Amino acid sequence: MNSPGAAGGELTYPFELDRFQREAIEAIDRGCSVLVAAPTGAGKTVVAEHAVRAALAGGKRAFYTAPIKALSNQKYADLVLEHGGEVVGLLTGDNAINPSAPVVVMTTEVLRNMIYADSPDLGDLGWVILDEVHYLQDPYRGPVWEEVIIHAPPAVRFVCLSATVSNVAEICAWIGELRGSVQAVTETQRPVSLDSLVCFGDNERTNLRFLPVFVGDRPNPEGERRDRDRRRRRGSGGRRWRAPERTTVIAALARRRMLPAIYFIFSRAGCDDAARTLAGAGLELTSPAERDLIGQTVEPYVASLGRSDRRAVGYEAWSAQILNGVAAHHAGMLPPFKEATEACFRRGLIKAVFATETLSLGINMPARTVVIERLTKFSGEGHELLTPLSYTQLTGRAGRRGIDDQGYAVVLWAPRLRFGDVAGLAGNRTFTLLSAFRPTYNMVVNLIARLSPEEARSVLGRSLAQYQADREVVVLERQLQEGRRSLAELNAAARRRGSADAQRRLRRAARRVEDLRNKLQTKKDTLATEFDELTEVLRRRGHLDGWELAPSGRVLAGIYHESDLLITEAVMAGHFDGLNEPSCAALLACCTYEPRGGDVPVEPHWPAAPLRRRWERLSETHGSLAATEAACLGRPRTRTPDGGFAAAAYAWANGIPLAGVLEGDTTPGDFVRNVKLVCDLARQVARTAPESATRAAAAAVADAMFRGVVASSVLDTAG
């Protein structure tokens, strides 16, 4: 039992606080920002909760940000349980619950938008918790974290929570330059020890074998011998080892008392097939009492689904699986099904969840065992080995604090698996966090609206990307200096000797110096050059008047989207004007929809002829924009609009039931996500479009589409 003297009052925990938690809490009590890097499940949330208490005790507000809505919803529910619904609010694209509360949970993008809008809600803000801050390396969404840290009011303090990364000191130094006093707190030890195993079938034995990856701190030499034996047998036409079947793996884990387990399969179809197969295999994973509890736990999540919706989304099959203690979990599932699965798993009622890697994104679902079926994952272009950070995040869910003395990470044998790859990933402790910061059109106009040219470029210089580039510049400068000195010496030697060998060495040295010079110039100028190039695109397209925003530039400042400039130009060109709600929804969907990797492009279906003409105008606008981008940037930057979801958006906005909208390969989860993307963009257009009728139509689209399965979740009914 531990009771720290929090600024927000006594806070008691049913366990002894770890060193890193005490250090972080003490820093918060001193008024310092903190960067906490610790393994999954180590208890970083304790630090965040202390900052919330400190804010409330000081009469300030606290904002808790998370990278995805599911995490925001979960954290909102947790904080409501602790502080009550009057004290805690929620702000996401889908929900606005008590937004003026002292504690508000939101996605990171919502906070960034508030900062750019100079929201009065920032006036009494004391603390911001940035959860999953290692997201700043995400190519598309990462810059948002940096924008928040750079632009937040000076008095705001930050609690940055991150997975274990090896360049904590560098990240902390960067935050310190921007925000003042900040303390780095790191923890590398897991709260529950982890046993790493390789599981394989042995054709000379009945039961599966589990081989430890390490003996002490060193890779197990038996694993290397098995690699050699496998190569020898394969060369002679024999094979002793085999890949274990999914049902057999779960049965073996059950015998070894290693359940509950999260079984990672990097394929939605694979997860569904595994859950279906295991549920029908006759394994008794749940007791009658547990099945009753599962039914009670599930009901609030699915209560709002009508009979026809349940048929459309396969409720009966899913219900049979989850009652048997088995479930799939992936982005293609209906959100209430995923939420119910998470709730049952947290209560220990589900014994096996077959999940894609999206489950590793911070959702609170610890298990005794994590199984990884393959160490390779399709990247869109080919299969690549998991990164050490990805492997650590996946296996970080193994071992439940306060429940398990031991967690297990099990990698399944496959014909191409090398034991050395498993040992390398399991033993790797080097995860360098690299910035993905780059200017966007929306960022450019917001900087221009608020700052002078010099100040705007200064913001780019304060990014982590530039900070890391500058540190590399120092190294490159030193290498260039050494290269020039070596080149001078070789040049003198070549003049003295005149040999062919001396001339070759001189040419190689000259090429190296030139390469270093070019690389150095690139590192120095990348962000500023890209900012200037985007500014030139905006000038040529008429969104800037000198260093002032044209009317269309002011619209762009309120559009937060990957295709921000295309959407702005479509709004200003009147592409959405005069459309009824279904047609407006369909055209918006052309800007938001992006087919999954590997999907075969389909010819869009247009329910109405006027809508087809608007699509053609939108495509013409994109073609013109792409030409300007190619001229200024050397390549098109804005992705091509896609009409693949237009017909579904049209039908849903027109009130068609779910069963009449779901067709082809569209999963319920993909449908809900794509509808919510349309709703989010519709709300932005409703705030920014110059024509009042268009604003009203866009608002009506968001209202009409946010219904049924799209709106159904416990938070929506509770809020």
What gyration radius follows from the Cα positions, in whole Å? 28 Å
Percent of residues in β-strands: 5-15%
The CATH class of the largest domain is identified as Alpha Beta
Broad shape: globular
The fourth-level CATH homologous superfamily of the largest domain is P-loop containing nucleotide triphosphate hydrolases
Counting DSSP E segments of at least 2 residues, the number of strands comes to 24
- Structural class by SSE content: alpha/beta
Task: Give a brief outline of the structure.
With 719 residues, the chain is of the alpha/beta class.
Describe it.
It is built from 29 helices and 24 strands. The chain has 4 domains: 5-186, Rossmann fold (3-Layer(aba) Sandwich), CATH 3.40.50; 193-427, 3-Layer(aba) Sandwich (Rossmann fold), CATH 3.40.50; 441-545, no CATH class; 558-718, Sec63 N-terminal domain-like fold. Strands 6-5-7-4-8-9-3-10 form an 8-stranded mixed beta sheet, with helices on both faces. The chain is 51% helix and 13% strand.
